[in-house]
Design a protein that fits this description.
By secondary structure, this protein is mainly α. It folds into 2 domains: about 90 residues, DNA polymerase, domain 1 (Orthogonal Bundle); about 180 residues, Intergrase catalytic core (hpI Integrase, Chain A, Orthogonal Bundle). The chain has 13 helices and 7 strands. Strands 3-4-7 form a 3-stranded antiparallel β-sheet, with no helix packed on it.
Length: about 300
């Protein structure tokens, strides 16, 4: 069987019923973008470990003629390995040729957060621009919610009486069969992302500014429809350019919320639940790294204790 036919049959018969539609779309895109152009005309049983090693080692030229990140390469390889595992299980192959392939090391990205001065500068700016997009950014800074969660948030999931936000949905941009993208609203990526976030008095103030708009969406355009993730990302970029902040993206707001939470001594279990992480370990690895100022303070306290 040719590779292209085999892997697409696998996607449409096996994977589509096992994973979320957003995950399936990611698989489909990577298969059509990277795997089929390389292995397409090969017979499945003719593909060797050396072939796959060469493919993995040369995953470049797909994006501005630069190498893909190790995380992306690993993600593509996982799809390939799962497919060959399926082939072995169904008697099409004797062994999985992916077993002895060496992968590039994954790199944990450095968490970038706003400084407290930058955060206050943004809040001061948007307090003078009382519009739905501005409120969305403020609430992102004060809750740590993801962009897709904010864009899909409806009033039916906001309980102002008990001061709670119920995070039940997210917006995702997924690839179609023509490699174009569309926005869909789905359940969050993991069960832990379905969560309840308490509303502070500051968040309540921002939400109250939005209630007169009369839309089903908390953050909406003038016609009552919700925002597309990209339009908010573009607005945020324009905003920080105006006030002189550079090299930051929207997800920085989530990192900033978590960083401030750690600095204010919020316990890690609580922070992990608010962020919707699947384990406390993820929160620990990402955010429990004191900055230079807090490290100096800790050292001063230790020195004072020893001297006394």
């Amino acid at each position: 069987m040719y590779f292209t036919r085999g892997i697409n049959d696998w996607l449409d018969k096996e994977i589509i019923i096992k994973v979320k539609i957003s995950t399936y779309d990611t698989y489909k895109y990577r298969v059509s973008k990277y795997l089929c152009p390389y292995f397409g005309d090969e017979e499945i049983e003719q593909i060797t470990s050396d072939d796959i090693q060469y493919f993995v080692s040369n995953l470049k030229g797909y994006r501005n003629e630069t190498c893909l990140s190790p995380n992306t390469v690993n993600g593509i390889f996982v799809i390939l390995s799962e497919f060959f595992k399926y082939c072995v299980g169904n008697g099409m192959l004797r062994n999985n040729p992916c077993l002895n392939v060496v992968l590039p090391k994954r790199r944990r990205g450095k968490v970038v957060a706003l400084s407290i001065d930058e955060q206050r500068l943004i809040l001061k700016y948007i307090s003078n621009h009382n519009q739905s997009k501005s409120c969305l950014i403020a609430i992102a800074l004060l809750t740590g919610m993801r962009l897709g969660e904010l864009c899909s948030l409806k009033w039916e999931n906001v309980d102002l009486k008990n001061k709670l936000i119920y995070v039940k949905n997210t917006n995702r941009r997924v690839y179609t069969e023509t490699n174009k993208t569309v926005v869909i609203t789905t359940s969050p990526k993991t069960e832990d992302s379905i969560r309840i976030i308490p509303i502070s008095s500051f968040v309540e103030e921002w939400l109250m500014k939005l209630m007169p708009l009369g839309s089903d969406y908390v953050f909406s355009k003038k016609n009552g429809t919700g925002y597309d993730n990209r339009s908010i990302q573009k607005y945020f970029k324009q905003l920080i350019d105006k006030i002189g902040i550079t090299n930051k993206n929207f997800h920085t707001l989530r990192h900033t919320f978590a960083t401030r939470a750690v600095e204010s001594n919020m316990d890690i279990k609580t922070l992990s639940m608010i962020l919707g992480h699947s384990s406390v370990t993820i929160t620990m690895n990402l955010y429990v790294h004191p900055n230079v100022v807090h490290t100096k303070m800790a050292m001063e306290r230790l020195s004072a204790y020893i001297i006394e």
